[in-house]
Amino acid sequence: MEGAIEAIRQGAYDYLAKPFKKEEIKLVVRRSLDHSRLLRENARFKEELRDRQELSPLVGSSPAMLEVYKLVAKVSQGRSTVLLEGESGTGKELIARAVHANGPGHERPFVPVNCAAIPETLIESELFGHEKGSFSGATGMKRGQFEQADGGTLFLDEIGDMSLNTQAKVLRALQEQQSTRVGGTNALKVNVRIITATNRDLAKMVKEGKFREDLYYRLNVVRIVLPPLRERREDIPMLAHHFLRRFAQVNGYAIGGFVPETMGLLERYGWPGNVRELENVVERAVSLAHGPLIMPDDLPESVRTGPLASASTEDPSRAGQDQAHLTLDEVEKRHLIRVLKETAGNKVKAAKILGIDRRTLYRMAERFGLVLGEDPGEQAGG
Fold it and tell me: Does 101 score more than 80 pLDDT?
């Protein structure tokens, strides 16, 4: 009895006393393996849940993003391969996680792989795993990402950076739904949904012989193109306030919003780094802010003096005017008009975006001669 108690105390799953039967050993080993697998999956699920909570949710109500949401909702119901295209920083991994989280395999692992960050000499081992002693440095067996994603989703980011040699092996794995470790001989059956992403033109790469045509068609079953931030500029206030609330809460700062001039700068900046750049800029501003509102000086110089939006995206009444020399009142008025237009006159939503209460919203509108009636058309008055 003392031996059994000590063994269990030190972490043994079970304890068998001699003499025992062969079938009894098999049963205990099988249960032990199942128990170990469940522990690993539970730990992985908790880690993924934490990661999802730390990542930004999908934010934006522009027509371009609404089309993306519709595609995500439709494709999530099945297990079709998805190809995400868009510039760096547009949120491709967020979309991939949304497809996985709303799909039939949402309880299984989501395994992201950045193909551009793994050296060519290691990517095969990373994707398919390896057996002990299969190459110099392989001191033990390693499960590949295809194995780890079994039943769930394998997200291959920057797929355009993958070599032709590796592309051929990925294609074979997709066609056969099998994964063979480097140095191994046994093919392991895997049931994996593949989502890939790229900021490159794969169709052009196919014509240039830099990407396999058969793999391209295998990946391009459902194609979702993410618009750059400059093409959905109306989402900037919503995104900026979302990031502000998140970073203020994390750091314990009492910061309630942006002064109109600051928001005007954010809306007019070109955002070559897209949503990721906006997130970083807001995080920096929250760290540097000295009061309850984000001031223009809290923004980096690149945003204050960087590329502006085209004149067509500005207020028609100010067309042709030097946007860098607007008065603070004018910036505030134009921003208020824009928010009211974006919310179709919904005063509750407008006040929330602006970070103020409805009473302050009415006072601002009265100061600028704007009428907040039921008819959204009245908002442009004055």
Answer: yes
